[in-house]
Write a structure and sequence with these properties.
With about 180 residues, the chain is of the alpha+beta class. It has a single domain, classed as CheA-289, Domain 4 (OB fold (Dihydrolipoamide Acetyltransferase, E2P), Beta Barrel). Helices cover about 20% and strands about 40% of the residues. The protein is built from 4 helices and 11 strands; from the N terminus they run H-E-E-E-E-E-H-E-E-E-E-E-E-H-H. It has helices spanning about 1-20, 80, 160-165, 165-175; strands spanning about 25-30, 35-40, 45-50, 60-70, 70-75, 95-100, 110-115, 115-125, 130, 145-150, 155-160. It has a 6-stranded mixed β-sheet with strand order 8-1-2-11-10-9. Strand 1 and strand 2 (about 35-40) form a beta hairpin. The radius of gyration is 20 Å and the shape is globular. It starts with a helix and ends with a helix.
Length: about 180
C-alpha cells in the first residue's frame, strides 16, 4: 500500500513538472554541418541573400550591408564570426534579420546574419534545456545560451545578444582597422 502511495506521489510530481514546463519557440538553422537554434523573439524576418554592398577595411565576418526597406543593415557572416570560415552563398543561404540589445542599456540594433540554411521553427520545453557546457563545443561558451534536447540529439541554443554584442563587434572592427 505504501509503495502504491509513493508511486502515485511520484506520478503527480511528474505530472506537475510536465504542466509547469514552458515551451518556447526557436528558429533552427544550419552553419555548415551543425544545426543551431535562436529564440524566435529576436527574429524579425528571413530573406533571400540580396546584393551585399561590401564595406572596405572590415573584418571578414562583416560581409557587407543591405538596404532593407530604406534602412542600412549590417550583415554578419555567422560562420566567420565563429571562425568556421566564410559562408559560401548557395541556393538555400539566407539572411536572418535579428534584433539584439532589447531591454539593455544600449539601443536595440537590427543586424542580418548569414546562415547556410533555415530549417524550421520548433518548440522546446524548458525541461528539455540544459545549461551551456564550459567545454566541448566548437564555439565560444559565452555564445551559448543553453543546450536543448531535440529528439535524440542536442542542439546549441545561441545567446544572440552575446554573439552580436555591439561593443564587441565595434572592438573587433576597430582592431581590424588598426592593422
Amino acid at each position: 500500500m505504501q509503495a502504491l502511495a509513493s508511486a502515485q506521489a511520484r506520478s503527480r510530481i511528474g505530472a506537475n513538472d510536465a504542466e509547469t514546463a514552458v515551451a518556447r519557440q526557436y528558429l533552427t538553422f544550419a552553419l555548415g554541418p551543425e544545426n543551431y537554434a535562436a529564440p524566435i523573439e529576436a527574429i524579425r524576418e528571413i530573406i533571400e541573400v540580396p546584393g551585399l554592398t561590401a564595406v572596405p577595411m572590415m573584418p571578414a565576418f562583416l560581409r557587407g550591408v543591405i538596404n532593407l526597406r530604406g534602412a542600412v543593415v549590417p550583415v554578419i557572416d555567422l560562420a566567420s564570426r565563429f571562425e568556421f570560415g566564410e559562408t559560401q552563398i548557395a541556393r538555400r543561404t539566407c539572411v536572418v534579420v535579428i534584433e539584439v540589445g532589447r531591454g539593455q542599456s544600449e539601443a536595440a540594433q537590427i543586424l542580418g546574419v548569414l546562415v547556410d540554411a533555415v530549417h524550421e521553427v520548433i518548440e522546446i520545453r524548458s525541461d528539455s534545456v540544459e545549461p551551456a557546457p564550459a567545454l566541448g563545443t566548437r564555439i565560444h561558451p559565452d555564445f551559448i545560451s543553453a543546450m536543448a534536447k531535440v529528439g535524440r540529439r542536442l542542439m546549441v541554443v545561441l545567446n544572440l545578444d552575446r554573439v552580436l554584442a555591439q561593443d564587441e563587434l565595434v572592438r573587433l572592427i576597430s582592431a581590424q582597422g588598426a592593422r
